[in-house]
Write a structure and sequence with these properties.
- The protein contains 1 helix and 6 strands; from the N terminus they run αββββββ.
- The chain is of the alpha+beta class and about 150 residues long.
- The protein has one domain.
- The chain has a 4-stranded antiparallel β-sheet, covered by helices on one side. Strands 1-6 form a two-stranded antiparallel sheet.
- It is rod-shaped.
């Protein structure tokens, strides 16, 4: 005997709500993972290589400054003065930096420190710190000057 009316395979109201909650929970978990990934990508994929590039550039700049200071030392007269001007890059990766010449690990040694934030490079001043005291600082902006006076400053 045949019954009247359509009696197809209908989902109950509880099943529909359970499916919606399942989709919302999965979407929420995926969104949290996506946000965590975005935060990690910025640090690991973008900042770390930029910091490595900055460190290498700082080392090159420090070696150049050290070489120029040693050159001035090698031609320094017994009496008189020497002034030389040189240029280093204004910015590294779009930001300023500082160059400082000061004491090294040993009191007899001196070093050139090129830094910005927590990235810094230390370069030895080729051993002239024991015979001549060298001090000073600069930035990458403008033309930089190395000045030697036989009588001191």
């Amino acid at each position: 005997m045949m019954k009247s009316g359509y009696r197809g395979n209908h989902l109950s109201d509880e099943s529909a709500v359970a499916n919606m909650i399942e989709y919302l929970m999965i979407t929420g978990v995926i969104m949290v993972l996506l946000i965590v990934m975005l935060l990690l990508i910025n640090t690991n994929i973008m900042e770390d290589p930029a910091n490595r590039l900055v460190y290498v550039a700082f080392t090159d700049i420090g070696n150049g400054v050290s070489t120029r200071i040693v050159d001035v030392y090698s031609i320094a007269p017994v009496t008189g003065s020497v002034v030389t001007k040189f240029d280093i890059p204004d910015e590294i990766v779009g930001k300023d930096y500082f160059v400082e010449i000061g004491p090294g690990a040993n009191l007899a040694d001196q070093e050139v420190v090129v830094s910005r934030g927590y990235v810094e490079s230390h370069i030895a001043l080729a051993g002239i710190g024991a015979s001549k005291a060298v001090a000073g600082n600069t930035t990458g902006r403008g033309v930089n000057v190395i000045r030697y006076e036989s009588g001191g400053f």
